[in-house]
Specification:
- By secondary structure, this protein is of the alpha/beta class.
- The protein has a single domain, classed as 3-Layer(aba) Sandwich (Rossmann fold), CATH 3.40.50.1360.
- A hairpin with a 2-residue loop joins strand 7 and strand 8.
- The longest helix has 12 residues.
Length: 133
């Protein structure tokens, strides 16, 4: 699903970590706000990798907030791969407003969006709904 010469966004989360490990080492531009994802994709020499800064959430080691959001507002992606803590009805949820807002900006600026979750997230609820299926 990931084609050469695309610009993709990888959000935070352990499921996205798994995707980062199997991304082919071909000409791609990868943007992420997640330090663990950055650590994985930056080892692949053909990828052009961008790490968005900002305030860091210690639990997920992802960056969020005004610095991150200002950077994302002017970026556009062929595809965004993201995760969540819960999906109920059509609501996609996470634990913090700030992290959800950052993900929503990236998703709004993506032509295609792919939600990567395992079955433990389905029919669950969390604090903040940041996007809808």
């Amino acid at each position: 699903m990931i084609e050469e010469n695309e610009t993709i966004y990888l959000g935070p989360g352990t499921t996205i970590d798994l995707l980062a490990k199997i991304i082919p080492n071909k000409l791609l531009r990868v943007v992420t706000n997640c330090l663990p994802v950055f650590d994985i994709v930056s080892q692949k020499d053909k990828l052009k990798v961008y790490l968005l800064g900002g305030e860091i959430r210690p639990l997920t080691k992802s960056f969020f907030g005004e610095i991150t959001n200002m950077s994302l507002e002017n970026m556009h992606f062929h595809k965004a791969f993201f995760s969540c803590n819960a999906v109920k009805d059509s609501a996609i949820m996470t634990a913090t407003i700030e992290e959800g807002q950052t993900q929503a900006i990236a998703l709004d600026n993506s032509f295609e969006r792919y939600l990567l979750i395992d079955t433990s997230k389905i029919d669950k609820e969390d604090f903040y709904s940041y996007y809808h299926l």
